[in-house]
Every structure is written in C-alpha cells, then in structure tokens.
Hints:
Layout: E1 13-14, H1 15-26, H2 30-43, E2 52-53, H3 86-94, E3 98-100, E4 103-105, H4 108-125, H5 133-139
Antiparallel strand pairs: 1-2, 3-4
Helix pairs in contact: 1-2
Amino acid sequence: RRAGIISHDGKNITFKDLSHALNATYNFAPTFCLFVPTYAANMLKKKYSTDTFDLAEVDLHNGIEHDASLLRRDAHFEPNQSVIYVPYVKELLASASETSPDGPILTIPDVSRISSKRRAEARAENPEFTLDTFHKTFGSS
Length: 141
C-alpha cells in the first residue's frame, strides 16, 4: 500500500481495500464506497468479496471512464485514458467562481457548467461520442 491507501504498483488490489481507501481518502458515503468497487467488479466479471484487480484493468471505454471527461480527451482522440489533458485542467480551474489564498475554489454550479460545456463539445467533435445515463450520473457524483 502507498501511504496506507492502495498498492503502490496498482496491482492485486482487493475490491474491499478499494472500498476502504475511497472512504478513508475522500470521505465519500459508505454506500458510494461500496457501489464503485462493486460496479468495477461486475464490469470486470470478478467477485467483489474474493478477487483482486489491477488499476489498468478499469481503463475500459464506457466502463468507468467515459466520454466528456473534465480532465481527459475522449477515447476516440486519446486511447490512453491515463493521459491528463492539460488544457482541460486549466479550463476547469479557470472556471472557478471563487478563490482562496490556496487557489481557485470550484463550486457545484461551476462544475455543472463546465461539465455541460464538455458534454456539448464532445458530442459535437467526437463522431463516436457516447454517454449513457449511468455515466452522466457517475460523472456528476
């Protein structure tokens, strides 16, 4: 584990460890911390309670990763979804409507606006664009 979060190399992670790490690191609700790893296990056709996975396995288009991401180009343009698209990061931070001495503060309306913008842009630019209701909901969590 890296700093007590997950395996440093991203390999052989139990779904239970991922649930714990999500809760401990991000303080998400326990139900969400169970849902995400359970969804990932099902997506990978593995058992939540006994199997392990490598982070590279969840890089499936329309698995967890989806079009119209706030930080990555669509898979049509960048198949390697581990690549962060710096112009999107800069645009996201520039869209913050509040600031603090530590930097920009993104509010829920800020993220909603930029997410809507990304979805419209992706829909217009990507000939293979897909975004189902699940990914809209997951991306808005």
